Amino acid sequence: MRWLIKFECALMSLKHAILAALSRKPQTGYELSREIEGSIGYFWNATHQQIYKKLHALEAEGWLGLREVEQSDKPDKKIYRVTAEGLKELREWIAQEAELPPAKDALLIKLFGAHLVAPEVMLAVFEMQYEKRATRLKRYLEIEKRHFKGKKLSLEMQFEYLTVRRGIIFERAWAAWANESISVIRKRMV
Amino acid sequence: MRWLIKFECALMSLKHAILAALSRKPQTGYELSREIEGSIGYFWNATHQQIYKKLHALEAEGWLGLREVEQSDKPDKKIYRVTAEGLKELREWIAQEAELPPAKDALLIKLFGAHLVAPEVMLAVFEMQYEKRATRLKRYLEIEKRHFKGKKLSLEMQFEYLTVRRGIIFERAWAAWANESISVIRKRMV
DNA sequence: TAACCCATGTAACCTGTTACATGATTAA
DNA sequence: TTAATCATGTAACAGGTTACATGGGTTA
Lengths: 190, 190
Hints:
2 copies of one chain form a homodimer. Helix content of chain A is 61%, strand content 6%. The first copy, chain A, has helices at 14-24, 29-37, 48-60, 84-95, 106-112, 119-148, 155-187, and strands at residues 64-69, 77-82.
């Protein structure tokens, strides 16, 4: 039927990213945006402007509470924490079924136009990405070694480690795929 | 310096996805949106409304030309093709360096809040995803067998095959990661 | 003296999603 | 008669990006 209400797709989830981060530790918007540039930034991104706006919205909805802290040497700040209703919302969202995300990677689109450029160009494109991916993998491995491997981990840390493991496994898979791709491109250059 | 102009980040690329698709074969907006539900949809998505709007914009910019085709039994249609300027733009974009995309996957956010729910819930979350991923992998393998493996491929097809290979390699990597994750969760359930 | 860190935000803009609309043809 | 397919679009809204703003304290 045309007029059946569609399922909500539950994928506008900066909201839930913020709830999850604050459920681990109450923080200011500034600290959240720092975190997103660092660890979380590998699998989610948001600007500080977006975060501040969303914090206001989440507070207005009753999912966050805040405490204003005056500071003498630095600007005053607002420390946000998740309320009971916020936790309820987050728990429900976690349990919900989620669609598979599309692998939005510009490289794949570039391959759809790859017949239009010289093989040398595609090779350079892959090599630039290869370097960036290798750097990221190295960073993941360092994080693993420093914070997780062979350590006794809290519950939160065990789950956080899984996100790092995902990074490591996927970067290695990417490298394997890139090697296949590069050898296909090289064959065209002989 | 604060007032240095920032590098353009070149990641609003539905534009380039459309250019690349049309560079392979002139098509209507309707056919493009069908294609996106199918093959391209695994790594890019867009609604037909978005596509029609973007087609107008790309035509206004001179990157696309169109031919109106009257049909008696079906609605008339507009077949779009890429112009010389469009090809130039696409070629330049392909050669450009691109940032690594964040792995925007809701599962990773769910792991950041996983300490809030029962292990049974997280297990169910992973198992639902596992099924969907397994279905997708199966479809990729069928596509590989039917259209690519052991066949003599044109240049375009060789590159298209690489996108399918990426899908296969990544779904297998995902399964490996999910198995790790599931065994971590199971340990909490004993 | 320049630039960065802390900490918050507003405003304009672009991208993406959802709802709604038309209307003929074809298949169950 | 019910719904799907073909084929195009408008309008309202939500999400995300970029530019601009403030202002003290610290580091090179």
